[in-house]
């Protein structure tokens, strides 16, 4: 599998040292950029991927979330700079350790599932705001809510646009893809109006940080699929992305989907529909030629779906 994460460089470390952070060091790296620890309470994110198109909007979304008393911390942008055309955000350090770095083992502990339920329940208490509705999810060319008043129809619009980007490539791996796309769009549009809350959209285990007791203390990396929408969508995606490539991945998806349906009172059929929609909207985000693991994972998810 190709690694699309950005790389740390000594040049950026020296940049932060010159900016008054002598202890600067690499911290983490992802598709959107590389993160550096500067000193207690402050980190810097060097945006090598898609930076926020409207940083003021991102800051407003963070503020909208932080306004609520959640049992875990969320990001906060402290200041911004630009260096040679590259955006750098200085942000509040989020503490704790990743819930799990490798989720491919068979066992799901009660501590892990309790942490996920705490996160999902907490986010579901944060009402969707106008700023969240103005966000654009990764890979799309317009705010998800533009021209729509209902989340299911807004998501159906993203599915329709995404399926046109590299649909021929995906169709080579998913038999009768056009029929699946039509069925998924129709099923989304037929959903009743859900409650509208913040959606994180990328609650993979490394983005959930816990303390030594396993209690969730922070969630990281809003932005990949962050929007306002049905909290069941966040639950569905979280169940799907816990373990994407391990030998027990399908078992984990089924177990977590069933758990979230029972504990959070979501219809299993709706969770399965949202998982299929997620695959159709993200399948080509890491390459346009199907060379990455995420593409194959999305194709497999669609082939196993009932649509």
Automatic annotation (TrEMBL):
<protein>
    <recommendedName>
        <fullName>Aminoglycoside phosphotransferase domain-containing protein</fullName>
    </recommendedName>
</protein>
<feature type="domain" description="Aminoglycoside phosphotransferase">
    <location>
        <begin position="24"/>
        <end position="244"/>
    </location>
</feature>
<dbReference type="InterPro" id="IPR011009">
    <property type="entry name" value="Kinase-like_dom_sf"/>
</dbReference>
<dbReference type="Pfam" id="PF01636">
    <property type="entry name" value="APH"/>
</dbReference>
<dbReference type="InterPro" id="IPR002575">
    <property type="entry name" value="Aminoglycoside_PTrfase"/>
</dbReference>
